[in-house]
Amino acid sequence: QITLTESGPTLVKPTQTLTLTCNFSGFSLSTSGVGVGWIRQPPGKALEWLALLFWDDDKRYSPSLKTRLTIAKDTSKNQVVLTITNLDPVDTGTYYCAQGGLSGVFQYWGQGILVTVSS
Amino acid sequence: DIQLTQSPSTLSASVGDRVTITCRASQNINIWLAWYQQKPGKAPKLLIYKASSLESGVPSRFSGSGSGTEFTLTISSLQPDDFATYYCQQYSDDWTFGQGTKVEIK
Known about the structure:
Largest sheet of chain B: 7 strands, mixed
Distance between the termini of chain B: 36 Å
Structural class of chain A: mainly beta
Oligomer: heterodimer
Shape of chain A: globular
Helix content of chain B: under 10%
Structural class of chain B: mainly beta
Largest sheet of chain A: 7 strands, mixed
Strand content of chain A: over 45%
Radius of gyration of chain A: 13 Å
Number of helices of chain A: 0
Order of helices and strands of chain A: EEEEEEEEEEE
Number of strands of chain A: 11
Number of strands of chain B: 11
């Protein structure tokens, strides 16, 4: 059974850095073809892909956000961490991690974590 | 960047109706398109991948078609559980989602 769980702060101030952790089970990020991605959704708005990390440590970032994003893995802990710098209130939303990879689709998702950026 | 445009943005329908949602890509994405269903407060659920392949466990009333730049998701007979928001997603070049189509009760 594959599960993913997001964790991190739920309230952050503008200009701060956000660090979100995705803990997963039921698969290994050292398996060829596997990846873990991050997708966010502002309240009442559409999904937005942010970043994806492959089993071979290849990293892909949304072009519009790549200067602010860092994705990294700890294979031994079954964790993927996303860092977003210089937060703004428009970064408020639910952040999801999901299993992806070479298949291209996100088959398994976490429940999401709502992050509010406000002073 | 590849942009995806869904139409309509909102669709009002009744139980039993045949429903079709369109997704247009800004450039050729071959068949690298997926469809997701999302209900309020929940994570998206994968329905269709590679434009027309049905994900395991998804009811057969859902179907997808298309290639290149134009794609459709069809629900052959709308059920009460199908009232939700639907998103298309391309994976030809990185990943992009459409803006969503809300299917509401007429």
